[in-house]
Amino acid sequence: MTETMTVSVAVEGVQVDTAGERTVLKSAARGKYTARAGKHYVRYEDASLHDKAVPTVLKFHDRGLTLIRRGAVDMQLDFRLGEKTRSVYRTPYGNFDLLVECKKLDICFAEGQGTVQAEYDMHLNDVLQSHNTLNVVINAISE
């Protein structure tokens, strides 16, 4: 059975680069939550990084979290506690090799709402770029 509902998605990301500079990105959007085959999907438009909104998917599963963006940039980040995962970040300016080292991952999710908290290090072309935290709050919206 597939379940779909409208949700609000609030995202706060904090990056601390290797020089200690802290950047905070916040976004809020309406999206769609779908549950299918033991996986949970939240689809929304994220306008925090670029001039135009980028279609974004959060996929929760028993092994962790996957963040997928397609549009002005293409990327897929896999967060698996205690693991290093690789992906490619595709931009109009070229492609970059990304490595995510997930230090903390807490997913509390039930009936289309919940929270995700992740702490991770981001490496670009095998060079440490930043220490990051990601906090996502998802709430069901009655229509």
Structure write-up:
By secondary structure, this protein is mainly beta. The protein has one domain: Lipocalin (Beta Barrel), CATH 2.40.128. It has no helices and 10 strands. Strands 6-5-4-3-2-1-10-9-8-7 form a 10-stranded antiparallel sheet, with no helix packed on it. It starts with a strand and ends with a strand.
Fold blueprint:
Layout: E1 3-17, E2 22-36, E3 39-46, E4 54-61, E5 64-69, E6 75-79, E7 84-91, E8 94-110, E9 113-124, E10 127-140
Antiparallel strand pairs: 1-2, 1-10, 2-3, 3-4, 4-5, 5-6, 7-8, 8-9, 9-10
Number of domains: 1
Structural class by SSE content: mainly beta
Indicate the mean pLDDT. Answer: 90
- Please list the strands of the largest sheet in the order they lie side by side: 6-5-4-3-2-1-10-9-8-7
Radius of gyration from CA coordinates: 15 Å
| Total number of strands | 10
Number of helices in the DSSP assignment: 0
Estimate the global geometry from the Cα principal axes.
Answer: globular
CATH-assigned homologous superfamily: Calycin beta-barrel core domain
Taking the sheet with the most strands, its summary is: 10 strands, antiparallel
The helical percent reads: under 10%
CATH architecture: Beta Barrel
Enumerate the spans where pLDDT stays under 50 for 5 or more consecutive residues: none
Reported by name, the CATH topology is Lipocalin
Amino-to-carboxy terminus distance: 21 Å
Strand proportion: over 45%
